[in-house]
Amino acid sequence: MAKTTNRPDEWKIEQGLSGADLPVLDMTGPETKALPPQVFGELTKDEEAIKAVGDREKLFNRERKGWVGFVEWENYPDKKAAAHQILTSQTFPPNPEFQLGPIPATNPVLPGTHWKMWHHAIGGELTQVPDDSWDLVQKEKHPDMLHLLQFPYNGEPPKRLVTAKEITPNSLHFVRNHGGIPIIDKEDYSFALDGLVKEPRSFTLDDLMDESRFPRIEKTVTMQCSGTRRIEQILKYAGQGDEVPQAPWAEGAIGTARYVGISLKKVIKACGGLIDGAKHLEFYGADTYFKDDKTMNYLVSVPWSKVKANEVLLAWEMNGEVLPRIHGYPLRVVVLGYIGARSVKWLYRIKAIKMPSRAPVQSQEYLYFPQQVGKHNLRLTDGIQIQEMPVSSAIMSPWTKQVVIHNGKIRCKGWAYSGGGRWPERVELSADGGFNWYTVPPQNMSKKRKWTWRTYEFDLPCDVEGWVEIVCRCWDNSLNTQPPDVRTAWNWGLHVTSSCHRISVYSVNKTRPLTKSRLDEFEKAGIPFGPITVPIAFPTQTWEDYEKYWRENDPRDADDD
Fold it and tell me: Which class for 63: exposed (0-12), middle (13-18), buried (19 or more C-beta within 10 A)?
C-alpha cells in the first residue's frame, strides 16, 4: 500500500473541526494557492537587553504602603519604557486556540498563560500577583463557579445558579477582571480627583462615608459583561482570538447586586466642579493591564452627562457586606446601565478630561464592528464604543441538547435585561423556532426595576416530540427587542450577543400513549433513557405486531395493475 500524504486528523481538518489548521485559499490568480497558516517558532530571549533595564525589584517596587500588587504606570513614562523593553526582548507562546478547535474540557477553561508570563517577566511587585489573585478567587468565590480564565480571573456561575435568586449572592456574582487583584488596606487607601476640576484633592474612604458631606445611596444594579453569551458567536463563526478580551462567556456573565456608596457628582462638586470644558471622567484602576507589548493601568471613561444624572456611584458595599476584594475593595465605580467594563475596580484616581479616554480599553477594545470588518480590514474607527447594553435575554433551563420528558409543557427559567435605564417589559418564549410566541405572565417575573434584570419561570406549551428549538426574546419599555439569530449579532470582537437566545431540546411528551408505554419499558428494564444516541437495548415492537400491521395495510411498494 502506498504511503499516505494525509495528516492523522485529515478528516477533522476537512470538516472544519480543526479550523486553525486549514490553509488559506488565495484565488486572486488563475490558479488557487493554498497558503499555510501561521507557524510560531521557538521562544527567544535577549538576556542582555533585559539586564540593561536594571534591577526590576527596585524599578517596579511597591508604590504605596498597604497596596500589595499595585504599580503606578501612568505617571512614569520611563517605567513604561523599561517594561516595554523587557516584553519586546523576548517572545512568548501564542494564545491557545479555543475558537477554531475544541474548547478545553478543564476548569479553569483557559489558564491565561500570557498574562502570567508578562507579570513574571516584569517582576518586582507584579511577581506574586497571579498567585495572590487565584488565592482570592478560591477564598471569595463559590466552589461551583466556572472559571473561564484563571488569570486575569474571568468566572461565571453555572446555569442552575445564575437566576436561583433575584439578587445574586456575592460568591456567585460573575467576575470579569482585566488584571490581577491588588490587595489594598482600607487604612492606607485614598484616591485622587484631579484634571479639569477647580480644586483637585484626595479622598479617603472615611471621607466618602461621612454622611454629613456626602448623602449615602443604595441601588440595586444589574451588571453585565459585553461578552455575555459570546460562546454562541464562537460556535457559529470565529472572531478575534485573544483569550483575555474574548473569553468564551456563556449566559452567566451577568449579575444583580445591591450597592451602597455615594454619587460621583457630589464628589466632583466637593472639588469645586469641572472647568475648562471638561466633558468626561476618566477612571484609573490599580490593576496592571497589557496591550501590544505595553504596560499600563486599567483606564476607561464615561461622559459627564452620565455623572451629572447621578448614574455613577462610588461603592464600598455589596449586598450588605464589605465590597469583596475580587470585586474592587476598598472602592469601585458602579456605572448604572453601562457595560461592566466601565465600572472600574480598585479605584485610585479620577481625572476630568475633555474627550473620551484614549487608553486602549476605551479606544481599542469593547468596540462593536460591522459584520464585514475583520482581520483583513479592521480599523479602530470602524467600531462603535460599547456603553449601554441593548435588550437581551437567556434561557437558563433547560440546556441546549438536553432531553426533556414532560406532560405537554416544558418548564423554562431565565433572565431578561436592558441597559441604559430601560427595563424588560415583556418576555416571550417559543417552542417552534420563533413562529408562535407565548408571553410570560407578569406574576412569573421578578420585580420591575429601572437598573436591573428580571428573572422568569414559565411552563412553555409544547405538544411536538423530537428535536424542537426553544427561543426566548425580550421587549423593553421602549419596545426594543432582539435580533432573530446569532448571525445578525456576530461581530469581529464577539461582543454583545443580543440576538434571541435559541436552544435545541429533544422533546419527549409523556401524555402520548406510545411514548408513555416506551418510557415504562425503560423503567421496567432499569435502563436510563439518555443519552438518546445509545441504541435501544430491547425490541421496540414484537414480530407478531409487525406482521399484523402488514397484513392489515398495503405493502411498502404499490402494485402495477
Answer: middle
Shared-domain flag, residues 380 and 395? no
Are residue 80 and residue 192 in the same domain, yes or no?
yes
pTM: predicted TM-score of the whole model, two decimal places: 0.95
pLDDT per residue over 380-424, tens digit each?
Answer: 999 999 999 999 999 999 999 999 999 999 999 999 999 999 999
Q: Report yes or no on 4 lying in a domain.
A: no
Q: Where are the alpha helices (DSSP H) in 291-359?
A: 304-308
Q: Is residue 473 part of a domain?
A: yes
Rounding to the nearest 10 degrees, give the CA dihedral for residues 525, 463, 431, 456. -80
Same domain flag for 458 and 437: yes
Of the residues 509, 526, 541, the one at which a domain ends? 509
Q: What is the pLDDT of residue 347?
A: 98
Domain contains 557: no
The grid cell for 110 is 483557559
Distance CA 80, CA 286 (A): 15
Give pLDDT tens digits for 521-557.
999 999 999 999 999 999 999 999 999 999 999 888 8
* Upstream peptide bond of 30 is cis (omega within 30 degrees of 0): no
Q: Are residues 234 and 120 in the same domain?
A: yes
How many CB atoms sit inside 10 A of residue 490's CB?
Answer: 20
Say how many domains are in the chain. 4
Tell which phi-psi region holds residue 404, choosing left (phi > 0), alpha (psi between -120 and 50) or beta.
Answer: beta
Q: Which amino acid is at 167?
A: I
* Domain encompassing residue 482: 391-509
Q: What beta strand segments (E) does 292-431 contain?
A: 294-303, 312-318, 321-322, 332-335, 347-353, 367-368, 384-385, 392-397, 402-406, 409-417, 424-430
pLDDT reported for residue 479: 97
Which CA distances in Å does 310 have to 267, 344, 386, 451? 11, 17, 20, 13
pLDDT at 433 over 90: yes
**One domain, residues 319 and 336:** yes
